[in-house]
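Final report, section 2: Outcomes. Of the targets proposed, Penicillin acylase family protein is the one most frequently requested by collaborating groups, and we therefore present its record in full.
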Amino acid sequence: MFKIIKWLVLAIVILGLAATAVIYGVLSISLPALDGNGRSNHVSQAVKISRDQLGQAVISAENRLDAAYGLGFAHGQDRFFQMDLLRRNAAGELSELFGKAALGLDKKMRFHQLRKRSAAIVEQLPQADQALLTSYAAGVNEGLAQVGFSSFEYLLTGAEQKPWRSEDSLLVIYSMYLDLQTATFERDQALIQIADIYGPEMVSFLTQPSQYQAALDGSTLAPYNLTIPEFPKQTLQALLRIDANQERGSNNWAVTGQLTTTGAGMLSDDMHLSMAVPVIWYRAQLNYAMSGKVSQVTGVSLPGAPAIVVGTNNNIAWGFTNGYLDTADWVALTDNSKTWQEVEQIALPDGSIEEYKLTLSEYGPVREINGKPYALSWVGHQPYAVDMDLLKLEQATTVDDALLIASEVGIPVQNLMVVDSQGNAGWKNMGAIPGRIKPSELAVQENDYSTLWQHNEQQRPEVKNPVDGRLWTGNSRVVSALDDQRFGNGGYALGARSSQIRDRLYEKQHFNEANFNQLQHDNQARFLQPWHSLLLQQLNKNSTANQQYIKELENWQGCACATSIGYTLVRRYRDEVINSVFTAMQANLQAQGGSLKYVKRDLEPAIWQLIEQQPDSWLNPQFADWDAQLTDSFSQVVSKLSKEFGSNLKGWQWGTVNELVIEHPFAQQIPQLSKLLNMPTAPGFGDSYMPAVQGRSFGASQRFIAQPGHLENAIMAIPGGQSGHPLSPFYRAGFDDYVAAKPTPLLPQTLMHEITILPANEL
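The predicted structure is given below as tokens.
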């Protein structure tokens, strides 16, 4: 019997090893070659694609068209599946890969008809831009062909690798539009629903300006000075969780040369996005000649697009944060409004077609809100939404050059922060801004619809070389209070993060890269201090029963630190108080297909007014008084933490509760491959409302610091590797330094690999 068991165990081990060998064998044949020579009909002169120990792609070409080919070749080798997901996401074509499970998402995207819009825009682009996209697409397809075998994602789904087309690069930019601006029109929808149910006074109360304002000119919006609106009689109901929309935001700041030892301006930029494997950005350096001058541009690219998105040409350095200007309006339609239907055909893996009927109007696609028809007029639907003008930054030599370009660039509107080697620093909104001059968070009547929607706004504010030498943005209002009336609130961040960055910048008189790196990792919990005081006050009312929690709060360290249990308690307490107070409103919105999700970030001033004034109409009817309601919120915290992490308080440390988990899209579907596919987990460090932004799968997708003309100390840290192939040595390269806050160099290090592509007709 023992021998039989022994042989069975041995057989299982052998089969397991054999299965592992098969998996690795299949994966290994799809690894791209990183050295060698090739020929192409799509290059005019030799193109070199080199890689350093991080896998950073260094493209060397004689002109910009060939450089686009080289970047496309590297993207096609390392990131094609990621690029495919981005274009399919924007076009609403994921069902062809994943079947009916993706139909809901595809229909949501087909609402915008972005495949049609991309194809139309490509035809309108200048010939030089069309040629650039054609060259890039050829590079992508030939880089993919060089691999020779489909990557494991296509083997698992059984899907076909479709060639890259010029319009797909625009779809990738549209994918960023959807990521960065969906919250703007979804927030407007929620406010329309709230106004419809509770009246416009409630909207004013919920969206009142906060105490955290950090506009560059120091202006503040007038505080809310009306009484708290009466809340309709509430019925007893279960407590609802109100999710918060993840703030697609970023930090950037800059100082002029008067505050650096080199005399050059210095820039910091970290863009906050959802994190997955592979990480969204791709390190690259482009070396090419233009107008008789050699250009070298280093930074991060977005796989699928032929540009360096954030980086430096050693004359200037630039970075972005999401602008959150109001770029969308819902237009209220009537029975007399002209509408028509179109049918979108969504392909499924078996070749069948799912039809999606879409109602359109002259203002945009139509959706019902509270049972009434509204048309979405959104800048993303306009012909000027997307173009190739971002590439012009590569040739800018001064801050003035960059600020001049800003009004022409077709991207989701961003806060451009730029510095130059001469010591200048500037800010301006770059990207598409509708020309209409009266933005509205509530519905617009047809008679008030402006034809200026068809024009990109050219007149926009800017700041260059402020007297104190400091600039900052963090997704809150940057423009003056007067300009705010013109450009509107598209879902601004609360301002706590921007305020903290501003205050930190005024704590020093001179800066270097190490100072900026430290500020990027600042996780001091200034925003939660009032909540910490409130919770301590509540717990001290029964100090004996709450002794262990009080101890953790008194030792909370005042930061989103990995070992802090007190921070977890305060952070969760705030969420539960908001859930409790706004449950009835959330329930009413859900009954109409809505949610407070996109308004939750606005609620801070309102919730504090309610806590301080404790109006009877807002009291949840299951509680005798507000004190009972606030006490119960902490009971909810303890109950939920115990259920999620066990009853031992050591398991409630913020580093565990907010653990950084960066996963491959297939890891959850195939858990057996999770170790192979995912990044290592790391203790949570940071949170919302502070410079060091981090959630479980969200945070700084890159950290960039540079002084043009002095790039030897420039930094570019990224939470993942270059390659999307799990057997590549570059799959996780750079991740460990990112989580350890080490200053990963921006510039390529020793080159280890090189591919040379020659013209096909060259002897």
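The chain is about 35% helix and 20% strand.
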